[in-house]
Design brief:
This protein is mainly alpha-helical. The chain is built from 5 helices and no strands. Helices cover 57% and strands 0% of the residues.
């Protein structure tokens, strides 16, 4: 495994699993765990990876490939930010896609 691959994996999974809680702690200190859990729960959109064959391919960018990572759906995610009841979900989804976009950029260097 190359140094870029290791960096890519550490960054990708740190952003997916850790950053929702860091963002929550910075902006919602009094209820950071609940807010972080809500934003983290948006990782459920990765269920669409299981519909692909093969399920995992190291050099496949998820954006534009998987249904819940398609451009028409991605355009909808920031819309959740405008409604108080869905704001945290919108933030989680938008950050999730941002994380995957970073992964795709790094992937271009590595694949």
């Amino acid at each position: 495994m190359s140094t870029i691959s290791i960096f890519q994996n550490v960054l990708h999974y740190s952003l997916h699993f850790g950053f929702p809680f860091i963002i929550a702690y910075i902006f919602w200190k009094e209820k950071w765990l609940r807010v972080g859990a809500i934003m983290f729960s948006t990782i459920i959109i990765d269920i669409d990876h299981f519909w692909a064959n093969p399920v995992f391919e190291a050099c496949r960018c998820s954006i534009g490939f998987h249904p819940l990572h398609s451009i028409p759906v991605i355009i909808l995610y920031p819309a959740f930010l405008f409604f108080p009841k869905t704001r945290l979900i919108g933030l989680g989804l938008t950050f999730h896609i941002f994380t995957d976009w970073i992964d795709c950029l790094i992937m271009k260097l590595n694949c």
